[in-house]
Amino acid sequence: MSKKATEFQRKAMSWMYRGKEIFKPLNTGWIDENVACVREWVANIFFYRKGDTTIMVDAGYNYDRLAEKMGWLGIDPKSMHHILITHQDTDHVGAVEADSPGLFRNAKLYIGEIENRYLTGEVRRKVIYHLYKLPQVTINNEKVLLHDGQVLDIDGVRIECFLVPGHTWGHMVYLIDDKYIFIGDTLWFGADGGYSFISALAEDNKLAVKSLTLLEKKLKKRGLHPLFITGHTGWTDNMEFAFAHKNELCSPFKKKVHDPSAPYDAYDESDDTEENAKSGFLKGVGR
């Protein structure tokens, strides 16, 4: 399923979102000394490195160049033993689906217990304002099911799990070592700050907005100011920027919410090169 879904998105979504100035992925490279990303067309997957341990966050598309680009960063796919999954959409789990090349077949997956209901077939993922039902995803890796507020320790890496439903019913975000929050598809960064992610792809937009408000309150209550790292629009260390429009939706087909700096067609990754990946840290937004 993942290969067909990947090709469908590459063609159909490239056409659908071309010129909408919506997707602004990071190119392959390092955000800082701890966090690296690989670009897969419009999507980013991430790697958190601490000492001898590297943890992967999301598994992207069923993408032919993944091993190559990981090589640019000096990361061996065989060294991936732990993968945190924010949600089960194809652009976040394609590389661990049953029909993928199996780069990470021995890795343990961590996924929310509610999100896992998509994988068991108890619920079906719906997109395009609930008009299109996606095929069921099949994953054979060992899984660890997570609940809201759970704290993990993986080789001295502290991972706190926050349930942020709306885009999917069980979308999970991960706060790592209180310094980085991998936000997946809950926030979309426009030129003037963060919005609730693309409305056409949400299970429940009202719930998504409520979830963002709750997440902001939790972080502020604890005095945390992590780097916010998104799946499709880069990163920021500015919390006010990240939540600037948390009560508003990114609605590209109704209201022209856009970022003029976004590429015309983000599925064109011709500027994502090994030379650029090694030329310095990747810039954030809202700074």
Automatic annotation (TrEMBL):
Region (Disordered): 256-287
Domain of life: Bacteria
Entry-linked Gene3D superfamilies: Ribonuclease Z/Hydroxyacylglutathione hydrolase-like
Metallo-beta-lactamase domain location: 42-232
Cited InterPro entries: Metallo-B-lactamas, NDM-1-like, RibonucZ/Hydroxyglut_hydro
CDD domains: metallo-hydrolase-like_MBL-fold (cd06262)
TM regions (residue ranges): none
Protein name per the record: Metallo-beta-lactamase domain protein
Origin species: Faecalibacterium prausnitzii M21/2
